Amino acid sequence: VQLQASGGGLVQAGGSLRLSCAASGRTLSRYTLGWFRQAPGKERESVATINWSGYKTYYADSVKGRFTISRDNARNTVYLQMDSLKPEDTAIYYCAASYDGYGRYDYWGQGTLVTVSR
Length: 118
Description:
This protein has no helices and eleven strands. By secondary structure, the protein is an all-beta fold. It is globular.
């Protein structure tokens, strides 16, 4: 299974980006999908997750109200819409897939860099 993340880039504070993560090699329609990020000098943190049906989502407090996770099972893809971006959102963003849905992630993407300038 390969997860290919894309959509990162440089954006000014207050701007928006939409990340995509497309899976190949296996359908992930029954997997919980998540976005994580790691900023320089910091540990990786969970940003948002979405269950297999799309009805249950989780957001880190730091992104609530600004980020939206969604999925398209027909396209085997998960998205992260990021609005009102802040400089502290600067990080490498990773997508991941969990079969048990309890925090153990089986597959990881390669990461896409998001840089938010002041």
